[in-house]
Predict the structure.
Amino acid sequence: MSKIQKALDKLKLSERSKNNSKQELEGADSSLNDDSVEFKKLNTKISDMFEPDMLTTKEKSDLKIIDAAMTDRLIFNAFRDLRTSVFQKTNKPNPIIMVTSCNYRGGSTFVSLNLAAAIANDETKTSLLIDCNLQNPGLSNLPVTKEEKIGMRDYLMNSAHSIKRIIYPTGIPRLRVIPVGIANQPMAEYFTNNRLKSLFSEIKTRYDQRFIIVDAPPIYENADARILADVCDYVVLTVPYGKVDEEKVLNAARTIGKEKLLGCVFNNQPRPPRLTWK
Amino acid sequence: MDISKEKKIQFLLQEIIYRRNFVVIVFCLITVSIIFVGLNWPKKFTSSTTIFVEEQNILGPLMEGAAVQTVVVDRAAIAREMIYGHKIIYQLLEKEGLIEKNPDPAVQERIMNSIKGQTKISNARRNLIKIEFQDSDPDKSYRVTNTLANLFIEESLRSKSQESIDAFTFIEMQANEYKEKLQSAEQALKIFRTENVGAQPNMAGQIGTRSAELQRAKSQLEQDLREKKIRKSSLVRQLSGEAQASSAFSRSEQNKTRIADLQAQLDVLRLKYHETYPDIEQIKLQINDLRTTIKKSESQDSNSLSGTSENVEYFTDERVLQNPVYQQLQRDLYNTNTEIETLTARLDQTISQISEQHLKAIRVEEFQTRLHELTRDYDVNHESYTDLMRRREQARVSMNLDIERKGLTLRVDEPAYFPHSPNGLRFLHFLLVGPLVGLILPISILFLWRQIDPKFRSEAQLYNKLGIPMLGKTPHLFTPTETRRETIQFIIFTLMFIGTLSFVIIIGVLRMKGQV
């Protein structure tokens, strides 16, 4: 049994490496056109998006990512509802939505990842997930981010990097990710750089019907989050169950500001454990 | 912020689900602990007895006024004082063999205190004292209750009769003291009376009367004396006048008469005796003397007729003497003189009598005062003694009542019974309470925690309180690994829960069978 499993894993790995080389090729192609800065040209049809090998439902489950085929409909529907709310409340095209939390381990990564997944689940929309939690990157578990790849930090610190280089497919259709990157300069002020704004304005126009989800650090303890909030169109605040009090939530809400605060997501609501043995 | 009851329950359920492991662990621990406590909980057997205290019985009204009845109030307090007293407890310990001989005082004190702690005394009703004793040993509980009740009754009756005896003894002592006093008073009175035999209490009156009589007699005598003296002076005056005027019998005449008398006597004697009889000779001598005298007087008379005035006076006197009036006056004067002397003598006597009576009166006064004092002493002592005697008799009756145990009736109304089943908390209670508390306690803690903890536990709360728009709520997503872990945990905790319940049931069954 284990041998068969190993063989299958090997097969998968070889397929992935092939796809990666494909993506790199595509990236090389696009970089040719990159200099012309005609992003609209790149607004190719969503259906034409290159998708590497897809993650299976189980893989997604392990990564705490929702999937249309998952048996746990409660959580799936919860994120669908959340997505609907977000759609209803955002009136800007290709909005940049920052997801932050009131406290450390407040579930912003989980919400941002699944919100992006839920948006991407809609075939007419795509989503781009940016890991802006530079100190404690949350999206490092994805297969694509496991290997150290250039990302936000690299882009912000080095103008030689093009946007295309840092956007990776995730194995989830229509969902792209910008990992935190490999550059590591201590005490660096990444977000004060103008490149952040240019990055955001660029990715906004890169695809039509694209929702950019930014996974930000907790708002109260990090100046990064506040800078990001200024740059982003909307902010979603996650409130974990039984972890924060009124003061924290109010402080967070005040920091964000009424006009930008899209709303709260009450996260990690307790529920009876799912009992399956698979 | 009003949250409906259903919501509250829902939130509580949510919290229980969230902290399910805590709930199950606390449930198991609490249940098992309570069951263990129950297994080791000492059984308590209580035996009780009630003592009826009758203060009014048939003798009460009968003996009213004659005997004083002890009034008992707040019986439980008195009984408590009595039973908790060193005496009864020590007797109990000795009687029940709860203490060794010559015990260590500290140990003894501890045992006594524990006995006191196990004993409860209350007023079941107004006249009922309830004594309860609780112990792990039913037999001991029964015995101690019985003994306590008996000791209490004994002691109350004994102390009551002791009280009566003390009262009686005291009164008797007092009575005896007064008796002695009375006796000495009597003796003093007797001696005084013996010393003053003639003295009578009403003598003062007699003396007064007598004094008055004597005074009257004295006045009378003085009056009479004055009269007699006047009479005497009058007679003397009369006599001096008469002497000159009247002639009186002559002395010779008298002598002649005398001779004649003597001659007559001589004649009589001559009839019987010879001439030589001394009497006849004597009389003859007398007659001769008298004749000589007459002759002398006759010669004197003749001389006087031719003689001096003195001779005349003599003659006159002689004549006066022969005067019957003069003689009469002379007799009267003699009589008066005699009477004066008599009266004077009587007056002197009366005066001495009066002074005597006066002295007597003073003596009687002293006697009266002394007698009065002695009588008063006697009366006071007598009165006190009589009163004490009466009281002593009352006390004697009271004492006898108490000795006969008729005064205060103390009897066991409901005798102590042998406790067959323990009271207080029983194992069944622990068996039922254990799981219940095991469930309620953690849930209550969670509920209270929820109330105190200001952290948000529902989106509604968040929205209602802060007015921040809600986008949605996302439940926890279980990864397959988590699901497996949760499943294992669930099985473990379910087993723990079921195991605890089974433990409760098994222990219960075993207990019922008496094997635990």
Chain A has eleven helices and seven strands. Chain A has two domains: 1-34, 54-267. Residues 1-34 of chain A form one domain.
